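This section describes the prediction task in plain terms. A model, or a person checking by hand, is given the sequence of a single protein chain and must write out its three-dimensional structure as a string of tokens. No templates, partner chains or ligands are provided. The sample shown here is typical of the held-out split.
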Amino acid sequence: MKLKKYSLALVLGFGVLTSCSDQLELLNPNQQTSSTFGFSADDLEECVIAAYNHIRMEGSYARVGYTIDVCRGDEAWNSSQVWYLPFDDLNAEVTSDITWWPWREWYYTINVCNFAISRCGEDNSQLSDKMKRIKGQVLFLRGLSYYNLVGYYQNPPLITDYDTYSSMEGLYGTNSTYDEVLDQVEQDFREAMDLLPSRDEGGEWAGGRATCGAAAGYYARTLMVRHKFADALTVLKDIINKRYGTYRLMDNYGDNFREGSAYENNAESLFEVQYLDYGAQGTDDEWTPVNTSPNATQGSAIESNFAPGNYGGWADISASPWLYHLFKEERTTSGTLDPRLYWTIGTYEADWASFEYGNVAYTQTLTAADNIVTNNIYGGLPIAKFTNLRTGLYSTVVTGLHDGINLRMMRYSDVLLRAAECENEVNGPTQQAIDWINEVRNRADLADLKLEDFNTADKLFEQIANVERPKEFGCEFGRGFDLIRWGFFYDSGRLQQLKEHGTVRRSVENVKDPVSYSDIANDPELKSTYDTYLPGHEFLPIVQQLMNNNPNLEGNSANHSTDNSSYFRDNGWTVRPVVDLSK
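The expected answer:
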């Protein structure tokens, strides 16, 4: 035993002498750096996975980053009167903590994407097919990141070179303009369209990864932000004509809002955020940006925000009475309610007796006497989308990051309605525009629109913006982005219309009754979320702490409450006037 100890000491001694003379350096493979990592396709595939993971975080789409825009729209309101109230009332202050969470998450994503792009080189023709797909995915995810950042913060710093992070000047960059950021978003999506395969290739490309179809859809969306309707129409037509993959409307609208392999990543979905199904997740609510827990739940908290308090939800957000009564105004060709109402708002309706899962809220069967409200104090019509309120999967919501329903961020119905909008903007009301709208309406068994009923582009736009899109996408992410690109905050008639749409009743009684903005002065239970809108606050302010940390960073229109209407009109864009569709 002593001999062995002496031998070991001798070996160690030689080791010390050797290290002193030769200065032996060993790299720890478990502590990789940018100088040792990222030089193979396998390494870069890990970056791709990391980038996808970041879009699933709380500030991106898992909670706050998604629901802020839901509140910003006129289809929903913050019934808890806390947490999301500044975003619902469009007057968030520069000290609001959660205002910067989307900023945090999307820049995490951009950082990963910039690193991977820096390893891919600029000449795409020299890349292998695998490397093209890697580069295409991170370009798409970087474009998606900046699409969200510019849509929320207006003038975020544009960082596209990974080497930028190596200097203090790079880390503390200045704001970029709205147009500079959108130029880059267009470029990223356009390049991704050329590098990515279509969902028709199958496998992972039909199972949630970004494809050329996803890039094309978002490219068209970005073009429409700056009213490049002719260019967007060309791309949307190509999607419809299957240039970027085969898409179609699901026969059952509800298939877009259920979890499970039978429904998620379906033929209608251009892009969706992936979450693990109920019962397949971990146990830890990992709210931090890095999400390092090995037992993280890997779900979203959208259901927690939407679900009624009586069923364990946080009861934060409710559907607007305007949206509810919009559904009630038009029945199907067979005389029943629009089936999309069932999946959008969780109310009892006699029509649902034998429809889908019936009149149900989680596992409770509803009767006509039941008056389900989102919040037990402030009332509100419960949102059913991206929850299991209609599926009866469980009786009580487990709050936190446990919602396993994939968030469908772009569906083929959006392609059709956007194509109709662009066709109307470029050529006025045409039969082609009407046909695309009717394709979406037919899925809901609604009667066809007729071209002769829409004699002006203004009237058809009104139908698209305030009838077809709300009923198809009600209480989903994106309405706030639409209101900005349409210029509804820059026209007195449109702003008044938003006030009418945003009128709600803060009461647990009579939540299904119609409400009127004209009654606000005499009814203390009524409020309109747009009454508190401050100019420039269609965007979120850049929080003060970020500007304190970076002296080169300036605020935006929300920080200074400045009116953006001049930018809108200086570009030659017009806000389409309000049209009474009943005439």
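For orientation: The beta strands are 76-78, 269-273, 317-319, 360-361, 364-365, 381-382, 407-411, 503-505, 526-528.
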